Amino acid sequence: MTAAQPSNFGSARKMLLWSGIAALCAWVLVPIYLVALGAFGGRSGVYQWPKSILPTGISLEPFLLFLRTEGVAGAFLNSLGAAAVTVVLSVLIGAPAGYALARYDFRGKDSFRLLVLLTRAFPLAILALPLTVSFIRIGLYDTVIGVGLVHTILALPFAALVTQGIFMGVPRELEEAAWVFGCSRPQAFFRIVAPLALPGLAATAVFAFVISWNEVFAASVLTVRNRTLTAYLLTVLSESPLHYRFAGGLLLILPSVIFIFAVRRYLFAIWGISSK
Amino acid sequence: MANIVIDKIKKTFGSFEALKEISLEVGDGEFVSLLGPSGCGKTTLLRIIAGLETETSGQILIGGTPVNGLAPKDRGLAMVFQNYAVFPHMTVFENVAFGLRMKKADQNRVKSQVDKAAALLHIEPYLDRYPNKLSGGQRQRVAVARALAVEPKVLLMDEPLSNLDALLRLEMRTELKAVLQASGTTTIYVTHDQTEAMGLSDRIAVMYDGRIEQIGAPVDIYSHPASRFVGGFMGSPPMNFIRLPVTNGTVKLGNMNHAVPASVEREIVLGLRGENVSLAPLAEGLRLDVRVAEPMGSHLLLTGTIANQPVRVILPPGESVKAGEAIGLKLAADRLTWLSPETGLALNHPSR
Predict the structure, then answer these.
(1) Are A155 and A247 members of one domain?
(2) Whole-angstrom Cα distance, residue A112 to residue A105?
(3) Where are its TM segments located (chain B) (predicted)?
(4) Is residue A190 situated within a structural domain?
């Protein structure tokens, strides 16, 4: 009897673990599922009451119809473009800043960190008008690159501060060892630091992607014809039938999920940075 | 193989002088330890030699060539770090091969050098594993193998054993000595552990407060410390320091008068190694009031006071002395160190 106790205890723990996992999955998946149901259910499915939880009477047809709606595909591509610009620029600019913050002591380091964050303190609404005017002057208004640049500004503070933490997690001795054993500084960075920082850099990229993908205000103000998906949906959806809105929502959710899924293995440290 | 000449190296961090014009020569194939308490500048000096830190002034020559301003990779040296610094995303083989790969050595040479280094440090079974599957001692071996695989002119070691547990440290110490004797590499070894320095080194440079207090063979430093700091830092238990009155150029030790160096007048400090005493009748010897007696198996450790000053002495294990007793001690007259009470420097040091 007593011998069975540990195994009971163990299975209870296992139960707890699995129910926890199930609850978390449900927390994320159920809303997505309901949105998908609405998107694929068509006009009749959306207004049906009581709702059936099971996917009955669904077809791709309503969703495809939505995709074929004028402007949706273009807006989707614009969003992807702006997000790509944001990801590339914020990692390319943010990571070196993070590296400098992590490795060097310089005068005004703390104020710099604060200043970087302060870029987020200005409400975009205040900046919108001057930004629009100057974007029109330089010819960036109503372009994907222009939106990407603004989104980069929004993502940069996080990119710099998050990568600082990541680079601080790569022990300095590893880099010094690389220098001693024949690496120049750039070589040491790309052979030793970058591979070890990759999971964190991937996380930073995901973060930048999501910031850009979800951003509505700047995208709405700075574009007229080349709308990003969020800006497009914002203007169109209020006049659309309910199942169109669900389809739009699903289209907003999917790329983030797919992107995170694609880089998921970098989100968990593969080798585990072990210094001791 | 190369010798190292360190000429008046000085390093300041802001207003703090970490190194005060240090000069040191290390011969070809010699093993020199930099020994001192933390904050004495020993690691800074090593990092300057490696090129990881820049000196404020002074010069360093490795094998006759000045290396000031050269990048670490151009100095022809290898280094073993305190926390091993093995690359976690490479297999043990790639770790050991790293230096050779960077020098673009051909595949055969990489293979043969890695196998040689791996055999020397007994890490052949782990060559295709990742470091996170290894214990601390195994990682330390990988770090040493990585350093030896490039056949460096100079090997620098920064407290390489201090993260290992005591038993493993002893084992690695012995092994390190054997490996380095076989390879004959010029080595500078930083440590704060005096037994490590004693056991491994050809010569020890004892550092304190940014300067070298004394440099010499381990036995010399142990038996003839140049200063109170060196005597107190080396040895376990550390050297005893007893302040004694001087009359007419002699000091009274029990019923014997012992001549002391002439330069002192009223008082002198006797530096006494705990093992340089033997039991004598109380009437004849120097009186020791025993407070604690600890039979250690190999010896008997006595803690007590001589002339009201705390001392620790060592007697053969067979002696039976109990706490609270007063005993007489006969001192080995030729093994005493006399120090100035004002400066703490040795008065009868051979170099003076």
Answers:
(1) yes
(2) 12
(3) none
(4) yes
The residue extents of the domains of chain B are 4-227, 229-339
Structural domain range at position A12: 4-59
Dump pLDDT digits (tens) for A117-130: 887 787 888 888 88
- Please state the φ and ψ torsions of residue B235, each to the nearest 5 degrees: 95, 150
Q: Is residue A122, in this structure, part of any structural domain at all?
A: yes
Same-domain pairing of A35 and A167: no
The span from the CA of A129 to the CA of B101, in Å, is 56
B4-227 and B229-339 have identical folds: no
The CATH architecture of the domain made up of B229-339 is Beta Barrel (2.40)
A39 has a pLDDT exceeding 50: yes
Q: What percent of chain A has pLDDT over 70?
A: 88
A38 and A172 share one domain: no
Which tokens sit at B131?
Answer: 């470091």
What is the domain count for chain A? 2
Instruction: Over range B281-299, report the average pLDDT.
Output: 91
pLDDT bracket for residue B120 (50, 70, 90): confident
Same domain, A146 and A51: no
Question: How many Å apart are CA B19 and CA B309, to the nearest integer?
Answer: 34
Mean per-residue pLDDT for A141-159?
A: 91
Lowest mean pLDDT among A1-5, A116-120, B85-89: A1-5
pLDDT for the residue numbered A260: 76
Average pLDDT, stretch B116-121?
90
pLDDT in the model for residue A1: 45
Q: pLDDT value at position B23?
A: 94
Residues of B in contact with A184 (CB under 8 A): 71, 73
What residues are paired with B327 via a beta bridge?
B288
pLDDT, mean of residues A183-205: 91
pLDDT at A237: 78
Which residues from B are below 8 Å from A183, CB to CB?
73, 102
* Residue B252 DSSP one-character state: E
A114 and A46 in a common domain:
no
CATH of B4-227, one of 3.40.630.10, 3.40.50.720, 3.40.50.300, 3.30.70.2470: 3.40.50.300
User: Can you tell me the distance from the alpha carbon of B316 to that of B335, in angstroms, rounded to the nearest whole number?
Assistant: 18
Using a 10 angstrom Cβ sphere, with 0-12 exposed, 13-18 middle and 19 or more buried, the burial of residue B189 is buried
Contact A72, A193 (CB under 8 A): no
Give residue ranges of B with CB < 8 Å to any A CB.
50-52, 71-73, 77-79, 81-83, 85-89, 98-99, 102-103, 130-132, 136, 146, 150, 163
Q: Which of residues 167-196 of A touch B (CB under 8 A)?
A: 171, 173-174, 176-184, 187, 192, 195-196
Q: What is the pLDDT of residues A243-271, one digit of tens each?
A: 888 888 888 888 888 877 777 666 554 33
Task: Report the distance separating Cα B114 and Cα A2, nearest Å.
Answer: 54
C-beta of residue B342 within 8 angstroms of C-beta of residue B266: no
Check: CB of residue A128 under 8 Å from CB of residue A217: yes
Q: What is the ipTM of this complex?
A: 0.85
Contact B56, B11 (CB under 8 A): yes
pLDDT (mean) for A103-107: 90
Domain identity same for A130 and A45: no
